[in-house]
Amino acid sequence: MLHLILAALLLAQSAKDVASGPLREDSDATTEDWITRVLNYMESNPETLEELMTEDYAVTEGDIMLSSDRNAVDSVWPSTRIPFTISPESESRTWGILSAMAMVSRHTCVSFHRRTSETNYLTFVMSKGCASFVGCIGGEQPVFVGPQCTRGNIVHEILHALGFDHEHTRSDRDQYVTVLHRNIMEGKERNFQKAKGQTFGLEYNAASIMHYGGEFFSDNGLPTIVSKEEVMNMGQRKKMTDSDVQRVRLLYSCGTL
């Protein structure tokens, strides 16, 4: 597993080294430095690992699975009571999964229950990173939970499954953040494209649990996205913000806070 992520993250750096000629003996970009950086990256940015480390599925923006049925994308679940299963290999993550669902349910009308015979349901499965489809795609719908995925990461993926995109892709994002394209891994620029989507009239929130972290898909350890305002916790995965809660309540007609 490590060699795959190493290859992905070191590719851009090695290309730069070749282009610039022989490495200096006192260069800081040693193999040990880069391995440490990779390990830190894996720990800090697990939502990008599925795209970087798997060829089994079509993935964009790090953790969004692409459905073969484009009409299914961004579909709201028909009920606020959502059935789920946990695969046998993911049973060790049961506490984190249940805790994540509890966070989503705490201040919304969306609830989760063990599947009996429902046709459409979420199933939490083990994978390399954290990933999900956006919206209800119908049938058995996987939510991928890798070893590095925290409770907050799982909440993030559940919100994708409920129909929410990344906050940084909002059409009005340039008023609030700056994307530093020069620091983005080659070939991953598309993950920072703006997209059409519902804002529900709510303000942009860089502290949203659905916002990218500052170094997502960085090829050099430098920021790929910075806030124009002072935001200490951009990309946090500790809790749903008030606006995260409000979006769920609005999309699923729960009423306002």
Describe the structure.
It is a single chain. With 257 residues, the chain is α/β, with parallel strands linked by helices. Among the domains are: 1-44, no CATH class; 65-162, Collagenase (Catalytic Domain). Helix content is 28%, strand content 14%. It has 6 helices and 9 strands. The chain has helices at 2-20, 31-44, 49-53, 94-106, 151-162, 242-251; strands at 59-60, 64-65, 81-86, 111-114, 121-126, 131-133, 140-145, 177-179, 225-227. The strands form 2 sheets. The protein has a 7-stranded mixed beta sheet with strand order 1-2-6-7-5-3-4, with helices on one face. Helix 4 links the parallel strand 3 (81-86) and strand 4 (111-114). Helix 1 packs across helix 2 (31-44) and helix 4 packs across helix 5. The longest helix has 19 residues, at 2-20. It is globular, with a radius of gyration of 19 Å. It starts with a helix and ends in a 6-residue tail after the last helix.
Short structural description:
The protein contains six helices and nine strands. With 257 residues, the chain is of the alpha/beta class. Keywords: Hydrolase, Metal-binding, Metalloprotease, Protease, Signal, Zinc.
* Form type: globular
CATH structural class of the domain at 65-162: Alpha Beta
- The strand line-up of the biggest sheet is 1-2-6-7-5-3-4
CATH 4th-level superfamily of the domain at 65-162: Collagenase (Catalytic Domain)
Share of β-strand residues: 5-15%
Q: How would you spell out the order of helices and strands?
A: HHHEEEHEEEEHEEH
What is the radius of gyration computed over CA atoms, rounded to a whole number of angstroms? 19 Å
**Structural class designation:** alpha/beta
Q: Roughly what percent helix?
A: 25-40%
CATH topology title of the domain at 65-162 = Collagenase (Catalytic Domain)
Q: Give the biggest sheet.
A: 7 strands, mixed
Mean pLDDT: 82
Number of helices: 6
DSSP E strands, number: 9
Active site: 157
Binding site for Zn(2+): 156, 160, 166
Signal peptide: 1-20
Protein name: Metalloendopeptidase
